[in-house]
Design brief:
Elements lengths: L18 H6 L8 H11 L7 E5 L5 H8 L3 E6 L4 H8 L7 E5 L10 E6 L8 H14 E12 L17 H7 L4 E14 L2 E13 L3
Parallel strand pairs: 1-2, 1-4, 2-3, 4-5
Antiparallel strand pairs: 5-7, 6-7
Length: 211
């Protein structure tokens, strides 16, 4: 889910949401800007691509971009509907793709040079977020780059979905303690989502594990 989604529907929770239909309507989307900035951050200084994790890979557009630019990618998504789209987008690069359909909160991640999670981690419930985050940080190799989108406490979904995780600025800072924060962009805007009008409050963060 992201601010560019425009269709409207009524939904009480995410259990009945048709992710397959959502992915099908977005097959031609470009890679997310956060991913591009994270890639540039990692390769600055001449470092070549290595092992990447796309956590919450969804339709596979970001995974495909990473594969085309030389990365080996472990792509993880909780929705079985993701698999067909990820494999189609990754055609020609399947030898460097490890696709895992599983719970983001419990999937054991491999060691990685780049971990990207664009608009996926907020869907991990609060009671499970801490353990999931520990796993993400444990996967980072020295010098690895982490790029994530988190939802803020003033996001309009914060009062609607109890099984989603929202952060204050202080909580975001605490999540990244011990990492070198290279970029932290907090944004608020009124807009739309795939389930109707929404006030977006987001944090885009790029950080590096120290060497």
């Amino acid at each position: 889910m992201d601010p560019n989604a425009t269709d409207s529907a009524d939904l009480g929770d995410w259990s009945g949401y048709d992710w397959g239909d959502y992915y099908a309507r977005r097959t031609d989307r470009p890679p997310r800007e956060l991913l591009l900035r994270a890639h540039t951050t990692y390769t600055k200084g001449g470092r070549g691509p290595g092992e990447a994790v796309d956590l919450g890979c969804g339709d596979g557009a970001d995974t495909a971009w990473l594969l085309r630019h030389g990365w080996s990618v472990t792509a993880v998504d909780a929705s079985a509907a993701s698999e067909r789209h990820v494999r189609a987008n990754a055609e020609g690069y399947l030898d460097r793709l490890d696709l895992i359909i599983g719970d983001l909160a419990t999937t054991e991640l491999p060691e990685a040079d780049l971990v990207v999670a664009c608009f996926s981690l907020p869907y991990v419930p609060p009671a499970r977020f801490g353990a999931m985050w520990d796993g993400v940080r444990a996967a980072l190799q020295p010098g690895a780059v982490l790029a994530v989108t988190l939802f803020g406490e003033r996001d309009s979904w914060a009062g609607r979905f109890a099984d989603m995780t929202f952060h204050s600025r202080a909580q975001v800072d605490a999540r990244f303690a011990g990492l070198d924060v290279l970029e932290l962009t907090e944004d608020e805007q009124d807009g739309t989502s795939d389930i109707g009008p929404k006030h977006w409050h987001t944090f885009d963060v790029i950080a590096r594990r120290p060497w």
